[in-house]
Amino acid sequence: MPNYQGVWSLSTQYQNASGWPLPPSIALFGTGRTATESFSTVIEQVNMATVGNAVDFGDLTQGRLVGAALGSATRGVFGGGIADLSAGDGNNESDVMDYVTIATSGNATDFGNLTQKRQDFGGLSNSTRGVFCGGYSGSKFNIMDYITIGSTGNATDFGDLINARLQVGTCASTTRGLIGGGDAVSRTDEIDYITISSTGNGTDFGNLSATVEGPAGLSSSVRGIFGGGGGSGDTNVIDFVTIASTGNASDFGDLTVARDRHAAASNSVRGIFAGGHSEIVNIIDSIIIATQGNASDFGDLLAPKRYSAGCSGSHGGIG
């Protein structure tokens, strides 16, 4: 197992199954739209080991919304989305990837480019590899591309989802990534899974409890969680699955407010859902991943925000 003690000065409050201390429980939320900012550059930071409001972390290289994010123990990567045309991009969608060092606040640095400019897609990762899944740019995509998070450079083709779709929720264990819900031909309840360390197409895992677009996903190393989303109206339902198996999702509980197009992040104990579209909120909800029950109030984002993306350095894909 990796010895994070050689990298981090940290508390051992959160440990993986082998007793190794996990990296600091920092969640980052970037991109999005506020009431006053159409294409946000702001990255917000939350300490998941406590409860409280978000604080400013830094800025992305390019203002955008409906992108995707993923993280390793050291880095957070934000990719794609709809870009602010004044930032110099050639059309609405972006293929830009930015990265930050999670332990150190500051502005993002260019990482490279996705294989395809797109918006409304998902990101998942383990400790070394990140995978971006699905999306939209004039049509719905089934593409997945991957990066090695510790380096920089352009993304490479990973394989294809079972069906082309956008507005997916994503989460991961150290070995397996899940892609749930979204908009295919119409709203879908399907969950695909992939083996992160290899390449290849998605495989059927099971189904969510309802057809939803725009859910948010998070995980421990054992359990995957999908919360919220849009259907005939926004939902507050939270589902869970056991990542190592296959099968349909079970009811976990409810968000404090029904919403879609929100962001999520987690450490090995706690999951948080931030912002979203329910008259656009600044709410951050908290759940304990190993239990079942309704979400509780965690704190607030700097401003009400929707269409943002979240990542952390201590999620289920780290171990």
Give the CATH H-level superfamily. Answer: Kelch-type beta propeller
What is the total tally of β strands? 27
How many angstroms does the end-to-end distance come to? 9 Å
Order of helices and strands: EEEEEEEEEEEEEEEEEEEEEEEEEEE
Low-confidence stretches: 1-22
The Cα radius of gyration reads: 17 Å
Shape: globular
- The figure for the number of domains is 1
Just name the CATH architecture. Answer: 6 Propeller
- Summarize the main sheet: 5 strands, antiparallel
Using the coordinates above, name the CATH class: Mainly Beta
Mean pLDDT: 91
Q: What is the helix tally?
A: 0
* Fraction of residues in helix: under 10%
- At the fold tier of CATH, the topology name is Neuraminidase
Strand content: over 45%
Q: Would you tell me the structural class of the helices and strands?
A: mainly beta
Describe the protein.
- The structure is a single chain.
- With 319 residues, the chain is mainly β.
- It has a single domain, classed as 6 Propeller (Neuraminidase), CATH 2.120.10.80.
- It is built from no helices and 27 strands.
- The radius of gyration is 17 Å and the shape is globular.
Short structural summary:
The chain has 319 residues and is mainly β.
Secondary-structure map with pairings?
Elements: E1 26-30, E2 33-34, E3 42-47, E4 55-59, E5 64-65, E6 68-71, E7 75-83, E8 93-101, E9 109-118, E10 122-125, E11 129-133, E12 143-148, E13 156-160, E14 169-172, E15 176-180, E16 188-195, E17 203-212, E18 216-219, E19 223-230, E20 234-242, E21 250-254, E22 263-266, E23 270-274, E24 283-288, E25 296-300, E26 305-306, E27 309-312
Antiparallel strand pairs: 1-3, 1-27, 2-26, 3-4, 5-7, 6-7, 7-8, 8-9, 10-11, 11-12, 12-13, 14-15, 15-16, 16-17, 18-19, 19-20, 20-21, 22-23, 23-24, 24-25
